[in-house]
Amino acid sequence: AKVHYHDFILTETNFTRLCSSKSMLVVNESLPGPVIRVTKGDTVYVNVHNQGYYGVTIHWHGVHQPRNPWSDGPEYITQCPIESGSNFTYEIIFSDEEGTLWWHAHSDWTRAGVHGAIVVLPNKETGFPFPEPDGEEILVLGSWYVGDVNEEVAEDLENGADTPRSDSYTINGQPGDFCECSKEGTYRWQVDYGKTYLLRLVNAAMNAELYFAIAQHNLTVVGLDGSYVKPVITGFVMISPGQTMDMLVTANQPLGRYYMAARQYDSARYDVTDYDKTNTTAILEYRGNYTPSADPIFPSTLPTYEDFVPALSFTSRLRSLANHDHPVNVPKNITTRMYITASMNTITFDYEGTTKSGLASSLNNVSWINPSTDVLLAYYRNMSGIYTPDFPEYPPLLFNFTADEVPDYTTTTIQGTKVKMFDYNEEVEIVFQGTNVFDASEDHPMHLHGYTFYVVGSGYGNFDNVTDPEGYNLVDPPKMNTVSLPKKGWAALRFKASNPGVWLWHCHLDRHLSWGMDTVFIVKNGGTPETSIREPPPNMPPCSSSAIR
Ligand code: C2O
Ligand code: CU
């Protein structure tokens, strides 16, 4: 195994998109940021130098970080921010992940510009579980905001107002041909006829699940969230924010230019009229001698904006590869079962002496509040008063969560810093239930730090604890770090709590994360040094008193 070193220099850098310029926090002056490329089992040290205005942390999304929560990154969960003018070195330990993952800032909404791909190559001995591709391409889907999104969001949260979705989506930092004055920068991928490429797709968008397709080219999905899946041949994919997908693309069509397009899939069905920038495009371009047509061909296989049926039907085709080199170990002796509702709510809060009401999100009717000292430090050093170990295993009331009219008394959520404790090696099953509380149902891409989990089932409506478990896939369920909890539906997942540490669970829509749709799992030590959290590095960023909501 090798050791790699990177320097990430965070600066405010100027960008022009959608006919307007602004400065935005990015890494090494690039959007998306640098690619981290490793072989399975390697270790990477990333020295993050913060030369911007905001305190920042960085998360290595999907990397398990065995016993090493100190370098996981979420602000006020495993560390305090790297303040402007200072630096911190992360130690990223790659154990069993293989495929594409990504990194992103985990402080307020700075991840809009601070993100990039991680490529984990297989060992030479094992290789890919498919013929070695002729080439590789990385496409990072993102969100563009014309203004300063951190300022906007801070103001919205103070006023209890709705937070912005985005002004356009992007592919490798570019909105594409359909957006005003952005055409010149449209991203191009050049291919040679007859070759097969490994396309690595990352959804780094802030608030949207996306459909993605390439005109006239099939996609063969072979990997998801850093694990291999049985090949799925499809005309489009649905990718949730946080997810990463590997697919094979063969350049077997007539020489020409083809649009690659991502389109917002809006499970909440907001009013489309004030928000019509749903498509982002890039161009797949064959090398060779031909006269290109005026406009590239647009993918006819891309589902429409409001069509939520293809999302779950695509996702339910995914199965773990489950072969000798990549075995499946679904926990079967469940010791903790949880049933967690994800809801949109209201809160009242005090702002500079006045009582205001605003939007909130909750898990089991608890809306998360960040502490002023990170949970990890408080847990490790036995500090009291930072969090309470009483996150509920069940929602406070069981009723028809997906009804059109959900009783009004659940709209107000309680706020707290409530964590769930697990013993080492517990076998855990969690059923997430999407609700229609507040008449606001939508998909929630739920992400767990420090782990991947098997998604053993999912469906629409209320979870039925008798019939639904009968349909669980315990043979080859897909392994993910982010699962799309369907709108007014459920998703069941299992994992073994074999990684001691402090791990964040949250919805990967930043609007919902900001409103409190998160909680923390603490997995206790196993009793030996090899099953315990490692020593903290000597220079963790100090926690000032500047706690934010
Ligand atoms: Cu992509 Cu909390 O993470
Ligand atoms: Cu959500």
Characterization of the model:
It is a single chain. The chain has a domain of 196 residues: Immunoglobulin-like, CATH 2.60.40.420. It is 5% helix and 40% strand. It has four helices and 32 strands. A hairpin with a 2-residue loop joins strand 1 and strand 2. The longest helix has 11 residues. The C terminus is likely disordered. The structure holds CU-O-CU linkage and copper (II) ion (CU).
Brief descriptors of the model:
mainly beta; Immunoglobulin-like; six-stranded mixed β-sheet; 32 strands; 5% helix; binds CU-O-CU linkage
Q: How would you briefly describe this protein structure?
A:
This protein has 549 residues and is mainly β. It contains four helices and 32 strands.
Query: What is the helix tally?
Result: 4
CATH homologous superfamily of the domain at 336-531 - what is it?
A: Cupredoxins -  blue copper proteins
Describe the global form. globular
CATH class identity of the domain at 336-531: Mainly Beta
In the predicted model, the low-confidence regions spanning at least 5 consecutive residues are 272-276, 545-549
The radius of gyration computed from the alpha-carbon positions, rounded to a whole number of angstroms, is: 22 Å
Characterize the main sheet: 6 strands, mixed
Note the quaternary state here.
Answer: single chain
* Secondary structure category: mainly beta
- The order of strands across the largest sheet is 10-9-12-17-14-15
Mean pLDDT: 93
Say what the CATH topology of the domain at 336-531 is: Immunoglobulin-like
Helix content: under 10%
Note the gap between the termini. 41 Å
Structure ligands: CU-O-CU linkage, copper (II) ion
Secondary-structure arrangement, i.e. CATH architecture of the domain at 336-531 = Sandwich
Number of strands: 32
Strand content: 35-45%
